[in-house]
Every structure is written in C-alpha cells, then in structure tokens.
Specification:
The chain is 33% helix and 17% strand. The protein has 352 residues and is of the alpha/beta class. Strands 3-2-1-4-5-8-6-7 form an 8-stranded mixed β-sheet. A hairpin with a 4-residue loop joins strand 6 and strand 7.
Length: 352
C-alpha cells in the first residue's frame, strides 16, 4: 500500500518531478528499467532537498536478485501470534483518521474503486445466480485487519454479512462508530478487537470469503497467518489478498518516494524486508491447501489519487486463491447460489 495523506512540504518542485516519474503518471505502462532509470535521475536531482542516508539505499544484494527468490523460504517467526506489536504502535496514532478521505488513508479509500469490484466480480463469476442490488447476499466474509472498516462497509452494502477483526481496539471503536450512522450496515457488519489466531477455535470453517487487504506486509508470522486463514475458511471458500511486491521498484516508490520525498505515507509505515513477492505468497498458499486462481498487478497514481490494474506485479498486486476441498478440488462452481438458498436476501443495499 502507498497509504494516504497530503504531500509534505519538502519541496513542491521535487515532489512533482518524483510523482511525474511514477509509472502511469503520463498514460500508464509497465514498471520497467527505463522507469527505474528515470526515478534514479529524479532522486539525484532532488538530493539537495532530501539527503538519503545509507539506510535509505537499495539493499546491497537486491540488484543481484533473480528468479531464485521463488525458491527462497521466508524466515518465519516462532511466536504464537502473527500480530507484530511494533506495527500496532505505528497505526495506534492514526486510529481516528480512517474516514478522512484526504488524510493518511486516502489511497486506501481510492483503492476501493478497484478492490471491491475485483472481489465482487470474482465471486459472482463463481455463481450463476445472485440478487440484483444485493449480489453478495448470504455470503459470510471475514475482513482481517479491517482497520476503521474502509473495506467492510462497501462489502456490507453489497449484501454480505461481514465480520471485521483488528487487534487495535481504537480501530474497532472507529469502525463501530462509523457503521452506526447506517442502520443497514449496523445489522450486516460486526467488528471484534481480535487477532486472527484468537478466533480460529470459535470460527472453524465458518467463512465463505476472507479478505486481507494491505495486511500481510505487516504481520509477524506470515506462515501462521495463512494457516489460520485456511482454518476459518470453508472448503471451496475464497481468499483475497492485496499487498506489495519485494522489488527494487517497490523499494523506490513505496519507501523512498512515498515516505521520504512526497510524504503520502507517514515515514516508517513500511519495512521493505516484510514485502512479499507474489511467487513466495503463491507457494505458501499452495503448501497450505489453496489453489491460486488470479494474480493482478496494481498501480497507484499519486497525481490523480487513483488506482488501476496493470500487467506487471512489480509494485502492488492482488491475489485470489480458493481453499481446496477434501479431494483436493475447489468448491462447487455455484457456491454463491447455495449460500443464498441457505440465507434470506437482505432487504436493502447498494451495489457499487
């Protein structure tokens, strides 16, 4: 995630040049080497305004990384929780700012323009029958790391029954307060201050869908996180993840430019070492009983404040995986229809 918020006052000219070098800022395209060269030139031109310390430089071994990263294993934590206490401290100070569309989370607000249709359309393509106006009626969704409810609410408006969990109580209070303004959402969404591990026993194979958007790059133990997702998801259920790739370009754009130059993300929000390559995530999912169906590249344009899909996954990407059944097969193709027959349609809602 690039995050949100107004650009800092480092240097407007420097910010404009850095933003103009972003892929997609002048009509889109792939994140390739020429783009990286332009970014290097931009950063050098801005050096008089922003001094990059040795800790801001590209990791020494990064330039020599090749496809062997696919086979490299993440050094998993031996802790009993995927929650990283250092990450909680970062977001604690911003808990009251979730619904400020011009604030630190503005990019997450605009991400809904592509991630909500991605979730909705993927699920509907797995079904032959749905309710107009409430296309996700009867679908039980777990929103992991829900924050202030930015993704839970639009999914609830599509008719889904949403459970949002977040280890920060302040985030849950913000989410509860905001949903209370809409009586329909108040009935469809429930929030809990909880980690994923804490709800495994009570929610074993409970949910039809899990969404973990801009979460996996912040967890302490990714393998445990994926295992827990598998435990609370029904066989044939869908897992949606959006996160950041671990590349040179994601380091430059996601940390150097976004945090240190333009300031659209509070400095220190991301750690490049915790970014996850799609090949690694796919391997981890498959080793825990999932079949990866889709991997799409995502691009944020800070000039327009909008997101778009792209072929390259070198920066941000979205992934859809399905939990395999007992015989190693995906769930029934008409799973949504069966869910809807078990649960009556909601009486109100707005499809995006």
């Amino acid at each position: 995630m690039w995050g949100g918020g107004a650009a800092r006052s480092l240097s407007r000219a420097c910010g404009r040049r850095a933003a103009a070098a972003l892929p997609g800022a002048a009509g889109g395209g792939h994140a390739d080497l020429p783009v990286q060269a332009d970014l290097r030139g931009t950063l050098q031109n801005c050096s008089s305004k922003v001094q990059l310390t040795p800790s801001s430089a590209w990791p020494v071994s990064l330039a020599n990384r090749k496809s062997s990263v696919v086979t490299m294993k993440r050094l998993f934590s031996t802790s009993h929780s995927s929650v990283d206490s250092k990450e909680l401290k970062k977001f604690q100070l911003l808990a009251h700012k979730w619904w400020d569309e011009e604030g630190e989370y503005s990019a997450l607000h605009s991400m809904n323009d592509i991630r909500v249709p991605f979730i909705r359309d993927t699920l509907l393509n797995m079904s032959s029958n749905y309710h107009l106006g409430n296309p996700l009626s009867g679908v039980k969704i777990l929103d992991v790391g829900c924050g202030g409810g930015l993704l839970s609410e639009p999914l609830g408006r599509l008719g889904a029954s949403v459970t949002g969990i977040d280890p920060l109580e302040d985030n849950i209070r913000t989410a509860d307060q905001h949903k209370s303004f809409d009586p329909v959402l108040a009935k469809r969404i429930q929030y809990k201050s909880s980690s994923l591990e804490e709800i495994v026993e009570e929610c074993l194979e409970t949910f039809d869908v899990i969404v973990a958007s801009e979460v996996v790059e912040h967890v302490a133990d990714l393998e445990m996180f994926i295992k827990c997702c598998s435990q609370v998801l029904k066989p044939g259920g869908s897992l949606f993840i959006t996160t950041i790739n671990k590349t040179q370009l994601s380091y430059v754009l996601g940390i150097v430019v976004a945090e240190k130059i333009i300031g659209i993300v509070p400095e220190g929000t991301h750690e490049w070492e915790k970014f996850v390559p799609p090949e690694e995530l796919e391997s981890l999912l498959e080793s825990n009983g999932f079949s990866v169906k889709t991997v799409n590249g995502m691009l944020y344009n800070p000039l327009s404040g909008s997101w778009s899909w792209m072929e390259s996954t070198s920066i941000n990407y979205a992934m859809h995986a399905v939990k395999l059944g007992v015989q190693g097969q995906s769930g029934p193709p008409d799973a949504l229809s069966e869910m809807e027959s078990e649960q009556p349609s909601a009486t109100a809602g707005t499809a995006l």
